[in-house]
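Quick one: structure tokens for this chain, please?
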Amino acid sequence: MAEQQYDNTNRGAIFKNDRKEKETHPDLGGTINVEGKDFYINAWKKESKGGKPFYSLSVKEKVAKDQSVVASSEPF
């Protein structure tokens, strides 16, 4: 049976970081596709000055390893 292909454009997923060792390490990490480009995404759980919880996010474009610039920040 042939494997079904899915269109993951403008979709992504993040997962709990089980390897977090320092407070600066992200709480969650994963990948996301935006308009056909793949990105790493990381999230840190924080609290606003008013005491409301939120997630701070960072996104970094995935770069092929054979290109001159290599992504230096993979999730986790």
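Strands lie at 12-16, 28-34, 37-47, 53-61.
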